[in-house]
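Retry 2 of 3 after timeout on previous attempt. Resubmitting structure tokens to design endpoint.
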């Protein structure tokens, strides 16, 4: 059985959503960030990077990096359309969005959680950088139900995951009405509800 290593309320939510969309069997293994351990033992033996998410495949190999896990999962079940087919223009559109979420939003939000950055710097960063990124997403979602248009795909799981975090660091997203509609749309998907319940995601 595959194992998805995750932590409560972290970026492990999106691969879990996608595993459920793909109907692939997996066990969840919780990682303690403070000690880098799991109930099984030393997490650094699973991945020396010590970050979640990590996916241990049936053959014992481990894949890391959330945006890569999403691609691997989607490619196990191409018939489900969780990502466009290899080599198509749409595939590169999807990769663009995965990259935006991973590099701008995910790591941008990581700055807001960092214990080594003071509150005033975080507030300037939120206003000077993050709000502009949220606006790009807001404009896109005001014209499209999902990142790739009319239908759910892997980048939506990652976007949903990362957009659960702003309220936890005092960023109010209520001015972004298209984002809120997207979040509510996502929360109607059984995969999202099941993933949130399984890892006990904090309310947003
Ligand atoms: N480059 C990695 C980054 C993953 C990452 O930042 N994970 C965070 C949680 S969202 C983490 O594991 N943090 C562990 C820690 O801070 O000790 C990816 O995209 O998957």
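Retry 2 succeeded. Sequence:
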């Amino acid at each position: 059985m595959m194992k998805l290593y995750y932590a409560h309320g972290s970026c492990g939510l999106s691969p879990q959503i996608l595993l459920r969309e793909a109907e692939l069997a997996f066990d969840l293994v919780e990682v303690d960030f403070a000690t880098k351990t799991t109930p099984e033992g030393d997490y650094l033996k699973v991945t020396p990077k010590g970050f979640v998410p990590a996916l241990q495949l049936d053959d014992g190999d481990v894949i890391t990096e959330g945006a890569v896990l999403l691609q691997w999962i989607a490619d196990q079940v191409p018939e489900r359309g969780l990502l466009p087919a290899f080599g198509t223009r749409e595939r590169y559109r999807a990769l663009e969005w995965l990259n935006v979420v991973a590099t701008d939003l995910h790591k941008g939000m990581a700055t807001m959680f960092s214990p080594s950055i003071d509150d005033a710097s975080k507030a300037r960063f939120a206003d000077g950088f993050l709000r502009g990124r949220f606006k790009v997403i807001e404009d896109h979602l005001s014209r499209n139900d999902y990142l790739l248009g009319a239908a759910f795909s892997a980048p939506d799981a990652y976007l949903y995951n990362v957009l659960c975090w702003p309220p936890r660091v005092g960023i109010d997203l209520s001015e972004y009405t298209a984002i809120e509609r997207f979040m509510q749309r996502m929360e109607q998907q059984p995969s999202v509800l099941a993933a949130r319940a399984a890892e006990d995601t904090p309310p947003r």
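Attempt log closed. The beta strands are 2-6, 26-30, 37-38, 41-42, 54-56, 62-64.
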